[in-house]
Amino acid sequence: MDNPNYKSGFVAIVGRPNVGKSTFLNRVIGQKIAIMSNTAQTTRNKIQGIYTTDDAQIVFIDTPGVHKPKTQLGDYMVKSALSALNEVDAVLFMINAAEKRGAGDNFIIDRLKGIKAPVYLVINKIDQIQPDDLLTVMDQYKQALPWKAVYPISALEGNNVNEFLGDLVDQMPNGPQYYPADQLTDHPERFVVSELIREKIFMLTREEVPHSVAVEIESMKTQENGRVHINATIIVERPTQKGIMIGKGGSMLKKIGTMARQDIESLLGSPVFLKLFVKVQPGWRDKSNLLKSYGYRK
Ligand code: GDP
Ligand code: MG
Ligand code: K
C-alpha cells in the first residue's frame, strides 16, 4: 500500500447493551465481514469488523471492560480497556434515543473522561422518537463530555449512517491499509479462532502471563472427512512464559488446546484437530509490523 493519502484508523464502539452497536456494524460493514463471537469478554481488543474502501480502512474494535463489568474479571478488564481506549483514533459512544440516560451510560461516560481519543456521541434509534425529542436527548448529554461531534442516526433504517461514516473517515489519520481488503471475507473464522485460543490462555494462565501473548494461525484446512485441521503458534516474550504455557509434561498446553478446540468446534460446527506450538519471540510487542500481523497496533 503506497498511497500516501490513504486513511486508516482504529475505532472503538462503546455503549450499553442493546443500544444498537452490532446493528450499526452490520450496516457499515455488511454481512460479509461482521465478526460476531459470543465469547466471554476476556480479550483486549476484539476486532468486530473492518470497513475497507479504496481510500480508507477503519478497524472497529470492541473494548471489553468499558461496559459495566459482569464478572470478577471486571476490574482487570476495565484497566486494560482504558489503555486500549488511549490507542484508538476515535471512540463512538452510542446511546438509545428512546431511553433515558441511566447508570449504565454514566458508568461508561466516567470511563471516557480523560481519554485522549476524540469521542463521538452517536444517538441511535432516532426512528423511534419524534424530531422534537431529539433536543431533549441531546440536553441530557451535552455537558457529559467534550464531544467531537454528535450524530443522530438510525442504524436499523440507515438514516444519517453514511454521512456519519464519511465524516469519521475524514477524521482518520493517514496510514496504511492494515488488513487486506478481502482477508476477513475469506477467513473470518481465523481471527475468531486465534481469539478463542488467546482467551483460553488468558483464563488458564492469567496470573503469570499477562498481555504478552499473541496467537498466530499458521494453517487451517478442512480435510476430506470434514475435520478442520488447525496449526496455531502461541508467541510469548520470554522462555519462562514458554514454560508456563507448556506446563508440567505439557499439561497446560493440553488444557488450553482442549478448551479451545471445544469452542472452535461449536463455532465452526465441525470436528477440529488443533495443534498448538509455542514460540519465544523477545519483545514482539514492540515490533509494530509484528503487532500488525497479530491484529494489534502500537
Ligand atoms: P448491541 O447490544 O448494542 O449490539 O445492540 P444490537 O445491535 O444487538 O440491537 C439491539 C436491538 O435494537 C435489536 O433488536 C435491533 O434490531 C434494535 N435496533 C438497533 N438499531 C436500531 C435502530 O436504529 N432503530 C430501531 N428501531 N431499532 C434498532
Ligand atoms: Mg452487540
Ligand atoms: K463481537
Automatic annotation (TrEMBL):
Pfam families: KH_2, MMR_HSR1
A biological process term (GO) from this entry: ribosomal small subunit assembly
Alphabetical keyword list: Cell membrane, Cytoplasm, GTP-binding, Membrane, Nucleotide-binding, Ribosome biogenesis, RNA-binding, rRNA-binding
Function: An essential GTPase that binds both GDP and GTP, with rapid nucleotide exchange. Plays a role in 16S rRNA processing and 30S ribosomal subunit biogenesis and possibly also in cell cycle regulation and energy metabolism.
Subunit structure as annotated in this protein's UniProt entry: Monomer.
Family statement: Belongs to the TRAFAC class TrmE-Era-EngA-EngB-Septin-like GTPase superfamily. Era GTPase family.
Protein name (Swiss-Prot/TrEMBL): GTPase Era
